[in-house]
Design a protein that fits this description.
heterodimer; A: 391 residues; disordered N terminus; B: 210 residues; alpha/beta; globular
């Protein structure tokens, strides 16, 4: 075997081991015990004062639940978002910990793939705002409208919120199945930028609402990591701002008023059909739509409660109004984290990463990785056929 | 050109990589296939960990894997000494020249113990060919097409097992193996297998002999 190894310096490896340990929420005592060494020895390894032996590295990697390859790969980057989430109030919640780790790992994978492929992520962030004294809702309405103008969106509904975040703003957006109570996570790091993880098991309208809320955070409280649980009542100014921002961004006041007028002209009452059509037009949930109408004074306060007490507005009713083709409760949205997948496919095609490395980076099983690669290949073949000349 | 399995009497022991094990588990007949080989089959603990991490909890293939290990159809091995040192060589360095833990462990074990490695992964195959000249490398299809497996399972079960591995695990097939696979599963099933797409699009049914 004639492979030249490019060993990392003990200091670099020590730092990586420390980040991996902290991400896994393991104490130095427990880590040392798992590797069969004294705590002082682990401290020395993490400081780069002593090289880790092969068997120690293997034991530590298993205990921290990372691969040895991810610790030793030269381009590997170590992102430390997880400990920041731990400092939030929900400390100790396993499902939040898991979601934070997923976000951390996906960001890591994307940045490493950028390094491997030699590409740079460009981003185009709007200027940061700060929450001022006074009514946060008014500020959020105003900031959301400015943000829309800055993006050149005009007054219409947002066609694809996640594509806009990823492609126009350069925010890293991922979507994975998370614990039902977690809607999304937001984190910002000077090196990697803004990153958002959305719960893919939620319905599309709920995911869009989460996305809008996270945009609010991105605008005014960028430096604060955040776990958003839409069903948990939060009354902080930051949360109220983010909710109001998301609402104003997805359902701009003027556009809602115009659409409302257009749809209700000639009707004597507000009906479920109106709500269904409006919610569909703006891609938000029926509840969010009614709340917005209440908030803009287009319907009485308590309208949503009335609907709720009177059988709600069901999916079946929505299907009758919209037809099954226009009606979507699917929770599969492949358009999210598309850039990460594209980078991984590209690296695999160039033989820069193996199937095993790709599976570990993307946190997907083998069959899902192969599915991505098969799809990419089929598209490529199609393109070949397009440009093939008949002979 | 007739394809015949690369698996021969020279292969006295076989170590399986995740890329192969995942296909065998998908066949629904992994136990009978491996028993029919009549050679000891081993798997490294790194590969087991990869399969465990990749499969959601309670997936049937995980239960199956545990049963196969319990029944000693598969023997789990840990790397030691020289094999562990080789493993570290393979997982270090730049991403393009290193491998994932499972792939690296499979090749290190095969190299140090002089056994054959069953691996479908293309980058691992390329690196193994460059680094370990004498190592025998075989693929999942070589296992399925081996004489003892064919006679033991019978054509119908083998066809079904191969089809399941293609459909569920998207098993990779090399160009020279495609005709054999297409004949086995029937050309009407080729279209249903996305991993065969590139051959199917380039091969008109009338060109298939048999």
């Amino acid at each position: 075997m004639t492979k030249l190894t490019h060993e990392l310096s003990p200091a670099e490896l020590g730092e990586r081991l420390k980040v991996a340990r902290e991400t896994a929420n393991v104490t130095q005592d427990a880590g040392a015990k798992a590797a069969g060494i004294a705590r002082t020895t682990l401290v020395a390894i993490e400081k780069g004062q002593r090289s880790a032996r092969i068997d120690e590295l293997q034991a530590l990697s298993r205990y921290y639940n990372v691969s040895v390859n991810s610790l030793l790969r030269r381009e590997s980057v170590h992102v430390d978002l997880v400990p920041r989430f731990r400092s939030l109030s929900e400390t100790g919640d396993a499902s939040i910990e898991q979601a934070a780790r997923m976000l951390n790992d996906l960001v890591r994978a994307e940045v490493e793939l950028e390094n491997i492929l030699g590409v740079q992520r460009t981003h185009n962030y709007p200027p940061e705002k700060s929450i001022l004294p006074g009514d946060v809702r008014t500020q959020a309405e105003h900031d959301a409208q400015n943000f829309r103008n800055w993006l050149g969106l005009g007054e219409g509904p947002v066609q694809n919120l996640f594509a806009l975040m990823e492609l126009q703003l350069g925010v890293r957006v991922y979507s994975r199945k998370l614990d039902p109570k977690v809607s999304g996570l937001f984190a910002y790091d000077d090196v990697v930028g803004a990153c958002i993880l959305i719960n893919s098991s939620h319905r599309k309208d709920r995911r869009i609402q989460t996305g809008g809320h996270e945009l609010g955070h991105f605008t005014a409280t960028r430096r604060q990591p955040e776990v958003y649980q839409d069903e948990k009542y939060e009354n902080s100014r930051e949360e109220r701002y983010a909710n109001a921002f998301g609402r104003a961004f997805l359902t701009p006041a003027r556009a809602v008023m115009e659409k409302f007028k257009e749809l209700t002209t000639g009707s004597s009452h507000l009906t479920r059909r109106h709500i269904i059509l409006l919610a569909h037009f703006f891609s938000v949930s029926r509840q969010a739509m009614v709340m917005r109408l209440e908030n803009l004074g287009l319907t009485k306060k308590g309208t949503w409660d009335w609907f709720k007490d009177n059988g709600g507005i069901t999916d079946e009713q929505a299907r009758q109004v919209l037809g099954s083709a226009a009606y979507d409760t699917s929770s599969i949205d492949t358009a999210q984290s598309s850039r990460l997948f594209l980078l991984a496919i590209d690296a695999w095609k160039k033989d820069l990463i193996s199937e095993g490395q790709m599976s570990e980076m993307l946190k997907l099983g083998r069959a899902q990785v192969r599915e991505l690669l098969d799809e990419a290949e089929a598209e490529e073949d199609e393109a070949d056929d397009l440009f093939k000349l008949p002979h | 050109m007739t394809f015949s399995s690369c698996l021969t009497d020279k292969d006295t022991e076989l170590v399986l990589d995740s890329s192969v094990l995942i296909n065998l588990l998908a066949t629904g007949h992994s136990t009978s296939i491996l028993k029919a080989l009549a050679v000891p089959v081993v798997v490294t603990d790194s590969v087991i960990r990869e399969i465990e991490l990749g499969a959601a909890n309670g997936r049937p293939e995980l239960e199956l894997l545990k049963k196969m290990i319990g029944d000693q159809v598969l023997n789990v091995r840990e790397l030691e000494g020289h094999a562990l040192a080789t493993f570290f060589e393979l997982v270090s360095g730049s991403a393009s020249e290193s491998l994932g833990d499972g792939e690296a462990a499979t090749l290190s074990f095969a190299h140090v113990n002089g056994c054959s490695a069953a691996i479908d992964e293309k980058k691992a195959t390329r690196l193994a060919t460059n680094l370990f000249e004498s190592m025998r490398l075989i693929t999942t299809i070589d296992i399925l097409a081996h004489d003892t497996v064919r006679t033991s399972l019978g054509e119908a079960i083998l066809a079904n097992a191969t089809f399941q591995a293609l459909r569920l695990a998207r098993m990779q097939v090399r160009e020279h193996q495609f005709d054999w696979v297409a004949r086995l599963i029937g050309s009407e099933n080729v279209e249903a297998c996305s991993s065969l797409g590139r051959f199917a699009r380039r091969t008109r049914p009338e060109n298939l002999s048999g």
